[in-house]
Amino acid sequence: MITHDVRVRPSAAQLPREHQLAWQLARVAEDPVAVTEEVTDMVINRVIDNAAVATAALVRDPVVAARAQALAHPYRPGATVLGTDPGTRASPEWAAWANGVAVRELDFHDTFLAAEYSHPGDNVPPILAVAQHLVERGELTGADLVRGIATGYEIQVDLVRAISLHRHKIDHVAHLGPSAAAGIGTLLGLGRETIFHAVGQALHTTTATRQSRKGEISTWKAYAPAFAGKVAVEAVDRAMRGQTSPTPIYEGEDGVIAWLLDGPDAAYQVALPGPGEPKLAILDTYTKEHSAEYQAQALIDLARRLGAQHPEVRDPAQVASIVIHTSHHTHHVIGSGAKDPQKYSPTASRETLDHSVPYIFAVALQDGAWHHVDSYAPERAQRPDTVELWQSVTTTEDPAWTRRYHATDPAEKAFGGRVEITLRDGRRIEGELALPDAHPAGARPFAREQYVTKFRTLADGVLGPAEVERFLDVAQRLPELSGQELGGLTVRAPAELLASVAHPEGIF
């Protein structure tokens, strides 16, 4: 890896392109280095993972609305829209939009957490949409798609390691626009100049505040990464037509760093693969076993164990308090440190509840399980004994857990916490868990078998058995797929299922 010093420069300095971060990102994307077997295997896993969580969300309102928008933009060749007949094609940027919403809706796919937060699987919908659309123009294959996805993961993870957006209340999708644009650049074999301008445009148009993840969280949470993916497709299109970007986009005195991030005196150290160095970042990412914010994953696993070992902690009449000692992020974003009363409201939206660790811990403690639908149902959230137990749960920041959250040593890295349950009779029950069971270093790490099982489980009752097997066959042959077979990387739901929900009308 080569570490790049990134800092604000005055316009008068005329910073050479080779010293600009966007140029270096384009250099990585342009590098034709081979994809390793291990990375290829993980790309397949994440394609399956994305399809799993998207399938489970096909009839949810945000996904239905986004799909309707995409289908209002038919195009040939075009790209597939999840849930529909593969022969029904939409313009690639709109397909990326609809599919991105479906993937993100349940907050159930992969994650990477460091200086910033991210869901790197959000790179897949825009890169895949472009691959499906442009296959008739050239010789694009499954191997090309794998290369593009590997780049998308690499760029996003490298930015997330180095540059914090949330500290300045900027949403994490500002790293996704550039990574998706870079991934599309790799897919298409574009030159450095073109990718450079696409990255710059994508960054410039995807900076937004984190209000989408604060207070009463709305349906826009699922749309935010889909918007970044759609913008990335459009940015690459413009760059291919010779259109340029704000330059230098990161380092300019009126640029992103100077005014949206750490300010004119800021300096970041961004490590990127050197020439000929394989793109391995996807191997450092991890998916979810449970449909909730990643910092809640280990706490769900811990709650299940504590509830099974000590059934009395499920009864609010016996519980005086539950305190979760955890990292700064968990406390301030999904814990009581956020100071959002909505996180304790029985009528809160699903999007709010999946960012409320007090709610999540209480339900997992009582049920000994977590379900992507049942655990968020209004009748579940409003159950009186749950509401009472939920109100007794608070979080507090523990510097040791914050340090472990930011640790670079895998042996120290942790996303969990320590729980103290004080009973009304004075007894105290404690437990801690550093990593979710499904984490690569957890008790039950996800491998191909678990990704396939997740897909089968979430597709049950949504897709027919033949469609489940067809998709798994195509996905697991990804590196060998011909261009024409890329259209099979979608799922087709029964027409009656899609017709069973109301389709809202808009402008299109």
Automatic annotation (TrEMBL):
UniProt xrefs under Pfam families: MmgE_PrpD_C, MmgE_PrpD_N
Domain MmgE/PrpD C-terminal as annotated: residue spans: 290-478
Superkingdom: Bacteria
Record-annotated MmgE/PrpD N-terminal domain positions: 34-268
Gene3D superfamilies: 2-methylcitrate dehydratase PrpD
Family: Belongs to the PrpD family.
Alphabetized PANTHER family for the sequence: 2-METHYLCITRATE DEHYDRATASE, 2-METHYLCITRATE DEHYDRATASE-RELATED
Name assigned to this protein: MmgE/PrpD family protein
Species of provenance: Georgenia halotolerans
